[in-house]
Amino acid sequence: xxxxxxxxxxxxxxxxxxxxxxxxxxxxxxxxxxxxxxxxxxxxxxxxxxxxxxxxxxxxxxxxxxxxxxxxxxxxxxxxxxxxxxxxxxxxxxxxxxxxxxxxxxxxxxxxxxxxxxxxxxxxxxxxxxxxxxxxxxxxxxxxxxxxxxxxxxxxxxxxxxxxxxxxxxxxxxxxxxxxxxxxxxxxxxxxxxxxxxxxxxxxxxxxxxxxxxxxxxxxxxxxxxxxxxxxxxxxxxxxxxxxxxxxxxxxxxxxxxxxxxxxxxxxxxxxxxxxxxxxxxxxxxxxxxxxxxxxxxxxxxxxxxxxxxxxxxxxxxxxxxxxxxxxxxxxxxxxxxxxxxxxxxxxxxxxxxxxxxxxx
Length: 361
What we know:
The protein is α/β, with parallel strands linked by helices. It has helices spanning 23-26, 28-48, 83-94, 106-119, 135-148, 176-197, 230-255, 279-288, 292-295, 297-304, 338-352, 356-359, and strands spanning 74-78, 98-103, 124-129, 154-157, 203-207, 260-264, 313-316, 326-328. The N and C termini lie far apart (45 Å). The model is unreliable at 1-29, 40-51 and 274-284 (pLDDT under 50).
């Protein structure tokens, strides 16, 4: 039942590697396990519904009207052509930020820019091509921004894909969800770190998902090359995003990078991610999906609110965190494992061909 929404990029079937005809049958036990776990989480969360806000939690009634003036701030939003990313870019542009929408499809990028300017005629917004599943594209994007921007105040790592039924492989040979959702953003953050450090109070906002609660980092097979399961691979990628956000804050604090690293998730929102959901899951989703604009609130809070805290995780606080008032999201136990997070970081630097310490100099 992982009708869980995050971002806006459609999976690219032309890069998907063929799989055996029984591959989908083999992953059914895992899907049933996911359904049972989600039902258990629903019962647990329902029992805790109505609890008092935790210390440091945002105002549950916080909305786009509460976004501080963003004039002079530069924001990069990956996957900003539709869904959560577009809603985020639109709200920030309306608040006066200089917004760079980064995505693969130039035509959809032009449409997104035109739509934003249609609502906010004086919006300062542009599109830049970026393929997160191609590390060469990530490096080229970083060079272009370094040549055209004075600094970056906020990087919003939003783009992603969800559960392509066949195992796709990125330009660099990585499983497509791992490459797009996680590793590309890891490398992008390193590439943009010098520009972030030039800002007065830089933030990196990384989008996770309630699917991360079911995730496990498969250190013995990060790329799911032996036994591909779409849901498990998605859950791993979203857990990795959350672990990255927290580890980035720890390393920023230790090294004095001055970065506030914050995680968010949009609950269950109406975006292009549902393209790979079956008929039953899409039908159920119609009853629980919230508008993308509502799902963008945790990200917007993390990106702009003066009270947002580095190392925090924001999301809806209703039943199972599917939707509801803004608040502190529940951290999966796996995301608190600092040793595993450090191990994943080191592996990611090797796989992505980046070193944060070098970028920070």
